Amino acid sequence: MSRIGRxxxxxxxxxxxxxxDKHIWVSGPKGTLSLMCPGGFEVSIESQSLNVLPMGExxxxxxxxxxxxxxxxxxxxxxxxxxxVSKGFEKKLxxxxxxYKADLVNSRVLKLSLGxxxxxxxxIPENVSVVMEKPTLFALSGSCKQKVGQAxxxxxxxxxxxxxxxxGVRVPGxxxxxxxxxxx
Length: 184
Prior knowledge:
- This protein is α+β, with helices and mostly antiparallel strands.
- It contains 3 helices and 13 strands; from the N terminus they run H-E-E-E-E-E-E-H-E-E-E-E-E-E-H-E.
- The protein has helices spanning about 5, 65-85, 145-160, and strands at about 10, 15-20, 25-30, 30-35, 40-45, 50-55, 90-95, 100-105, 110-115, 120-125, 130-135, 135-140, 170.
- A 4-stranded antiparallel sheet has the order 11-12-7-13, with helices on one face. It has a 3-stranded antiparallel sheet with strand order 1-6-5, with helices on one face. A 3-stranded antiparallel sheet has the order 2-3-4, with helices on one face.
């Protein structure tokens, strides 16, 4: 039984939720997101709250392990959608290394200088925006947690932090276990 699924999801002010067939549409000041409800579950709206229940006469305690996991996943995805369209998600990235810097060419392309012989031009996905704080520190933000995290992961993959000097792209405050170099 999923403990996450037991919690009632409160709809924040300024956010509207619509149910059409098996699709759930959530819209707010930061954008609009949709999710297809998997089979076996139904979503109902009751006075500024969302309830997710299994279909038919099945009790929550009678769900098998796979359905219980899907139940918790569905509730967490709905919770992330409600938070994303009201407040949004943000992921900061830091470039550590001599000559490492980032620059916005236009609003959709990020130019990264990461110590290679060429610059990397990264196309920013839709519904994700970039705010440059310094040439070595920037933030990705958007309403969809998955898209923001995926974009950050793709940028980190260009130059992951290495354990000897600590150079690379990383999240600020990330603990990096450093290794000792060669010694004679």
